[in-house]
Specification:
It is a single chain. The chain is α+β, with helices and mostly antiparallel strands and about 325 residues long. It has two domains: about 10-145, Aminopeptidase, CATH 3.40.630.30; about 155-325, Aminopeptidase. Helix content is about 35%, strand content about 25%. It has helices at about 15-20, 35-45, 90-95, 100-115, 130-140, 160-170, 170-180, 195-210, 220-225, 270-275, 275-290, 310-315; strands at about 10, 45-55, 60-70, 75-80, 85, 120-125, 145, 150-155, 185-190, 235-240, 250-255, 260-270, 295-300, 320-325, 330.
Amino acid sequence: MKKINIKFQAIEIPVDEYNYLYSLCSNCNLLQNSNYILSKAKSDLLDFRFLKILNQDNKVVSITGVLLKRVLFFGSIARVNRGPSILKNAKNLVETNSELIYFKSILAIRDYGRAHRWLSLLLAPDFYFTDVQKSMLSRKFFLKRNLGSGYCSSIINLNLKEEELFGKLDSKWRNLLRKAIKFDLSINVWNGNSDDIEDLVCSYNQFQKERSFNGVSSVLINKLSSAENISHWSFDYFYVKEIDNNRIIGRLVSLIHGDTCTYFIGMTDEIGRKYNVNYLLLWHSILEAKNKGCNYYDLGGFNYKSTPSISKFKEGLNGEKFELIGEYITI
């Protein structure tokens, strides 16, 4: 990478401007969406900032949301989750590669933090750095935190036709989906009733206990379900009831943010698994996202240690897998 001596600048912006700039990014990730950041801040009692990063010509090349934990009398500990996000036209503005834009944006965020009493910056980049670029981060005093591997997930390209998406499925996945469709089960769509969310949260908490894993907090689910209805945002909750019974046997929540939809929560009980409801719901969610104009579907992460069966289930869709580099810390 070259021309690293040319600095970018990070500037705080209001949420409306951030939302507009977020819409100019491609394959947006959930953790950088304003509704997610605001909901996370409320659920965990954190502060937040929305920043835009300008190049040497004062053109916006990237944005990031920051969560802040205040330390009394001393300042704040800042966290950037899967940021910054690069604007689609950034390479045309800077006339250089994405890696350099991303690297300079990270340095601009760090410089902003130093000027605003951030005691430390925890950064989990949404980028696939090479060993050379990781070395450059180290030379700029970014230290790798020893927390295991980085975020791993898979992206499905929704620009493909429905039959092409179906054809890419693993053969076993495809056959189980066919069986689920033959049961002719009705898929219900959440209509905004808060009682339904309370029932979802209770069921999800029980599901976590049964499977022995720590998932999304109840408070965060509630905050996201009632988040502001901004452009290109949707909290989609689908569920299936048992035949001739009013009991729910399968649930799925997906979140649309920008041009991307992310699988957020999924669970089925023993009867639901008998009907392969988990296959039916995820396939329905993918097609709904495609019909709503999304270009990408993020399967919401793989964790082979805590939820190996869920990870194997997601692998059957044969999306494009990726793994990020993990978390860094700097001061």
